[in-house]
Amino acid sequence: MAQNTRTVPAGTPTNVTQNHTKGGIGESTLRPDGTLKVTGEFAYSSDMWHEDMLWGQTLRSTVAHAEIVSIDVSEALAMSGVYAVLTYDDLPAEMKNYGLEIQDTPVLAHGRVRHHGEPVALIAADHPETARRAAAKVRIEYKELPLVTDEASALAPDAPLIHEGRDDHHAGHVPHPNIVHRQPIVRGNVEEARKRADVIVEGEYVFGMQDQAFLGPESGLAVPAEDGGVDLYVATQWLHSDLRQIAPVLGLPEEKVRMTLSGVGGAFGGREDLSMQIHACLLALRTGKPVKIVYNRFESFFGHVHRHPAKLHYEHGATKDGKLTHLKARIVLDGGAYASASPAVVGNASSLGAGPYVVDDVEIEAVALYTNNPPCGAMRGFGAVQACFAYEAQMDKLAAKLGMDPVEFRQINAMEQGTLMPTGQVVDSPAPVAELLRRVKARPLPPEQQWLAAGEQADVRALPGGLSNTTHGEGVVRGVGYAVGIKNVGFSEGFDDYSTARVVLQVINGEPVAMVHTAMAEVGQGGVTVHAQIARTELGVTQVTIHPADTQVGSAGSTSASRQTYMTGGAVKNTCEAVREKVLEIGRRKNGSYHPAWATAELLLEGGKVVTDGGEVLATLADVLEGEDPIDVELEFRHRPTVPFDLVTGQGDGHVQYTFAAHRAVVEVDTELGLVKVIELATAQDVGKALNMLSVVGQIQGGTTQGLGVAVMEEIIVDPKTAKVRNPSFTDYLIPTILDTPTIPVDVLELADPNAPYGLRGLGEAPTLSSTPAVLAAIRNATGLELNKTPVRPEALTGTL
């Protein structure tokens, strides 16, 4: 059998070890990778290096929908320094497509391209500039085809089919082949409930396409191995999902595709789908040399999916005393050319489309379309963001029509523990929606127009327009707005959601040391910090080593759906508990005859010692483990089961856990120039149990800032005539900087969920939901305009559209 020799490239992740005397659950321990990151010493995937590596380049389509008439690679292949040029015909295996759920995405386009920027050819060369020049010499002849860009063109009787002959498991229940998935939610009788309504409000809402805008571009390094396999070092969100999609396309068994997580510079859903992984492996296996691919920012906009743009129609009714009577909604999500995570996004948008409110009579329909627009998939908030924007605008409309305070109106209708969701699922853990709203409303408001008191010393950064120095106080008005949202935690609808953890406990140089090994993708959420805290808490050790994430251990699932602390943290906790039992078994075998407490007492591991629940020390961990083999345990952890939503009624216990956040936005708006300054975005959120408060607050503030971005500046602009992306750069696609980010006071509730490890609640996504509608509500409050589209641009405020 061939020996697999692995040359480890520069920048490969190494074990991260921290020495702490404390640092358990509930403490704000610092990130083990934090200092390296802020000093520029952390190795990201784009820093990977191999001395004899080649550079990969992807050639992408310049049109959105076209037949590929011909491809000529001869001129590119003839260039000095070019090692390979690959097209669809060069793919080595029968499987030539991939996908998270539906395998509809070609590795390289075949026959036709379905969106602007679709990969058509791959080049490997000895220098990145050579690879780029070679790509420019590949000649492709296109014959452009009619475009599908919106619901009307997608569902027309003579609409071009984006995917002909669909045979996926959603194809049989959608009314048109250009609908990826459709999920209705039906409960009660909306027509009868409408008769009880004293007021009815309707609204049409448009949510723009948002980019994840992570700062670290897609990148990775593929190294061919002597056994015919490949070692891939890559920034991703889900190693084992990547592996499941990569191996069949390479024609290799999974054990010959060995993946290691390299440094990830942000993700937010954009790394859940494959980007350059298969391409780098194909080039490495073809050339026999390591191949590195790093996207520039322009290519990154085409290299990953985006948040689904949406059009939403909502109708709510209420009685004159403020009780909701009914909800009827239709949510249309543009999934773009390939399915990605669209089916699951539809499930979230529909099942969470009523918001955190009690409403007994509901009809919601959510669909995702196939179009020739850029593919859309996972992004922080995952379908619940678009719905929250719409239903929170509706709550403000209802409150205004009834002459009620918008917060009080929400509190009257707020769900609580025991509420029945529109899907029929009982909310069986704390749901403090009314309390979260109370807390953000009770917070003192920041002083109005603070720059006035400063006079000539006023800092222009405090004014709308900031350093552009365009506003000097004329026409500036204050606005305050509120919003609250509901998000699910974990994978839903019957998905077998599990995480794996391996924990090794041994004595090294006389000290007990725990090693935690998972495949969890650390994308900035702080999992490496929390895993070490859990190990210290459960095993009573001070030194914990976090092994680099790879596929040599079982799957940890995706770093998405606010699930990793719940799921992989739960796996680490369970595995540590099993290791602890083995320690106690050894202790009883060695020392049981010397002290009766070994057999009768509740024993704990604390401070490197075995102690009774009364605090009596029975032995040190080092003594118990001395002369023993390392204790090595690997276990899986699963949450309670969920079920798919019924395809007709949408009924079913589809979610594991719900999480809630509320926001109050305070803005100052220059109504003459259409400029907005967000002064404060106060938030309150229930996290169940804060395992690390510093990380908790950071996640809440980060999610809040992403919601701010889509409220006032972020949108990928797709030309409706050509379906081409018009702003694929950070020059034209704007994201909030520190100058745009307001004060974000955070109020954290800790109401434990009895079904979750430590009572925790997934928290990373919820603040992204309600921050956007809170900002829009505040701008409406300041201007009196309806503003039913994100982002709010100056021309929408000045009437110069």
UniProtKB/TrEMBL annotation:
Region (Disordered): 1-32
UniProt domain Aldehyde oxidase/xanthine dehydrogenase a/b hammerhead: residue ranges: 39-146
Entry keyword set: Oxidoreductase
Comp. bias regions, Polar residues: 1-21
Tagged with keyword Oxidoreductase: yes
EC number(s) reported in the record: 1.17.1.4
InterPro entries linked: Ald_Oxase/Xan_DH_a/b, Ald_Oxase/Xan_DH_a/b_sf, Ald_Oxase/xanthine_DH-like, AldOxase/xan_DH_MoCoBD1, AldOxase/xan_DH_MoCoBD2, AldOxase/xan_DH_Mopterin-bd_sf, Xanthine_dehydrogenase_dsu
Listed GO MF terms: iron ion binding; xanthine dehydrogenase activity
SUPFAM superfamilies xref list: CO dehydrogenase molybdoprotein N-domain-like (SSF54665), Molybdenum cofactor-binding domain (SSF56003)
Enzyme class: oxidoreductase
NCBIfam families on file: pucD
Protein name, as recorded: Oxidoreductase
Gene name of this polypeptide: pucD
